[in-house]
Each structure stands twice: as C-alpha cells, then as structure tokens.
C-alpha cells in the first residue's frame, strides 16, 4: 500500500513530465527526454540537476563511439516519491469524485 | 500545497503523467510489419526445407537468419537507443497472453500439418505454415493492442 504524499519538487510541470517519463523506464537518453518533453538542452540540464540534487535521479555520462551520451534514471528514492505523489493526486481526485477527470 | 491543489488540477497532472508514460509504452509497441515479415520468413524457410534441394535449403536458411536478426536488431535497437522501458511494464497477464498466442498457433498448425501429410498432399508443412502465417498476421496486431492495454493499466496504477 503506497502512502500518499504530495511532492512539491516533482509537481512542478516540467519536472512532473520528466519524472513521469523516467518512471516508466529503466533509463532514458537525454535526447529522448528533451524531445519528448520539448525542452531545450539547458532547460533539461537544469531540471535534471535539481532532481539529482534532491536524490531522485542518477545521471550517467558516457560515450557511444566518440559521441558523448548522457542518460538519466529515476532511482529507488525518486520512484518511491513519484508513486507517493501519484497516490496523493489520485486521492485528491477521488475525494472530489469522477466529475473532474479529464475527458 | 497538496492540500490546496484543486481536484481539476490534480486530474490534469494525472493526465499528464499518463500521457508521458504512454510515450514510453509506445516504444515497446511491435509494428504491424513485424508480423508480416515473421510470417513471410517462416513460410519461406519451411518451403525451402520442404523442397529438399540443398541449394534452396541453404538460401532459405540464410534468408531466414539474416531476416530475423535484422528485424530484431532494428526493433530492439530502435527502441533502446532512446530509452529502456521498465522490465516489469509487461504484467503477468501480458506474458500469459504471449504464451497463449504461441500455444494457439502451435495447437492449430501442428495438427493441420500432420493431417495434411496423412492425406498425401505435397508441401504439407508449408501449407500448415501458411495457416500459422495467417494466424500471426491476423492475431499478432490484436496481441499487440492487448499488450498495449495491459501495460497502460500496469504502469503507475493504470492512469
């Protein structure tokens, strides 16, 4: 049973998109996240750094051939925080009833 | 802030989460051409083996191996180049559906092959493989759609 806990850090719109994407993956390439969430390189770097400093995300830098490649993964702390955040959102919606669900 | 969040805002956030996770699930989706190519490769290999001519068998095996490896690499590398979807995204029901699909194909194809052989028609294995191919082409996309549905339901409590 997941204990609902609203997470301010995750709930910021851009970070919510990034963390949602990462929650469904083992890891995701920087370019994949950037293109999926439609952010600039610098904006994504900034958000990933915030998530890394919060202890939610691990960032790996490596090379594929001679090309640098950065990937990110949600660690167990981040995953737990995300699941608790989702549970908190579901609780808010459930309290209000189904009428608020987007069509 | 959680307590102050309006229900419609929470619902929008949940919709956003669902949409982002859908993007990852789509990476795992088997394209329709996968089923057609698999079916064609299987029929081609069986017909080649059943021809009993060494050169045809050799070509048939080579085409099958190269075709299969190319297809799998293209699908797997194409998706994991961007992101590696979570291993537990396919729930037990999805695994059972895949195994069930394979079982149905075998349950239909094998008896058909033996029955055709018993009647003495030429190329019985190829004919039964055509039946398997029809099942793959018809049922494969249905299986893909089902897997897509159960994965969506599986990820973060079915958003």
From TrEMBL, chain A:
Domain Winged helix DNA-binding: 15-93
Listed InterPro entries: ArsR-like_HTH, WH-like_DNA-bd_sf, WH_DNA-bd_dom, WH_DNA-bd_sf
Superkingdom of the source species: Bacteria
Entries under Pfam families matching the protein: HTH_34
Name of the protein in its database record: Transcriptional regulator
Organism per entry: Rhizocola hellebori
